Amino acid sequence: MPERPSIESETPGHPDDIVDRAVEALRRVTTNAVGSPREGLVDRAILLRGAAAAPRRNRIWPWAAAIAAAVIPSSALLWQMSRPARVAQTATPTADGTLAQVVAVHRAVAANATVIDVGRRFGPGADASARVSLALGAIELAFDNGIEMVLQGPCDLEIVDAMRATLLGGHVVVRVPDGIDGFQLDTPATSLVDLGTEYAVKVGPDLLTDVQVYDGEVMASSRSQAAGAAFPFRVGMGEAVRFSPQSEAEPQAIEFSEERFLRALANADRNPGNGRRINRKRPASSAIRGFGKAARDAIHVLPAPGRMTIDGRLDEWSPTAVVRRSHEEGRSLDGWMMYDDRHLYIAAHVGDPLPLRNAVNPAIDADSAWRGGAVQVRLSTDRVVGWPAVGDAADYFIARRLEPTEADRNAARNPRLSHLTLWHHAPSGRDCLFVTRGMVYGAGAVNPPGYRGRCVRDPDGLGYTMEYAIPWQLLGAADDPPRAGDVLAAVWQVHWSDATGTAWRDQIVEFRNPSEPEWIFVWERAATWGRAIFDGP
User: What is the pLDDT of residue 104?
Assistant: First the structure.
């Protein structure tokens, strides 16, 4: 085994009746024991695709097959039922209905503003939570039957029973011990049945599912409505494939990377806690680290002095940083922003004892590149809306059990809300850029044409400088770029990683709207972004 890197069916009737039954069945399986609806695959699809929050017959049909897939056994499950089973240890839930326990944590914060401590238990019982919604950090989860999982936030996992779970989004590594066979993990795109193995799964913002097998084999079946009743597909040790929830094609082979997923938590906290809930008025310090407590509420964006040379030397930049922030363990930030009629310019010096080690592959994991050490800048170029910016991600509504209005959905699609990730990819030596627009976090642009970037390691090896020029066209503002006197919205996040360049360790968040609560993540609500003041000459 490779060494682990640390840290009853009904007769079909009228199509409308089938849809109604499918919707009702889905509502039943996505309701917990006390009757309150829990948000699942369909809830996320509703929010991301703009369908009605309370599905009606004339609006549900385009994705009725996807609903049916969530409640009708997949071909992987049918295959599992038809083959001779070895051992399926279905551990009896405890008195409180739980089936799994957190055994290690690394700065883990849940999406519902709960600090996740060692000893916290999860399961489908009436007195427990079946949903493990990890917003930041990482946890190791041990099932009572011996199955183990490592979750890396953001991650959303639903425990169905001792031998089945659903991954709605994020990264998870699953280890099934010898003697257990048939654990099933569902995603929006596939159903996976283990054959005694260790494997990893990622569900991205676009609901694509990547499967990578470290040891043993898994049987995977597509859940795409286009694929219909797909035949199972065997994925073996050392193989990696990608499934799409929209495609009827065979899964796509992708690069296998030993270091891509976090398989164990080295030096993690393994001391039991009490699963305390964050005080809404005064969040716990461990949670503030995740949400980000800014020292400033505004950044001045200065006019560029002329033609800019992007070389990472910062000769054209003011010697006085627009933002200067010291942190712990040698981590710090000096940052600048400038502009002209064609470009946004971003520069930073980052104190980092482990600089420029990011190993996150931009070809397949650009949306997760921040984990390996990066600078993220979120910016609104909407001169009509101004500040504060307007737009909330689907997770904002899901975590708070809120129903978005049509206006909310439209605001989330605003193409002038941009999210930029800037990083140096160590294996290739490339200085990368990932751009997504709007708050729906679909497919973004990786290293798009037109940008220029340069990252340079400090001579003492304790930090790095970065400098980027990003065309306004990439930010949806080519026809009406920001100009002197504008007050728009922006927020910075600087991320640090471990020595592998794959596991997130810490961050600084700077420029937040002080009128917004501290316990909202800046990536889920644009109104949390601070002011970006565009100065004149």
Answer: 92
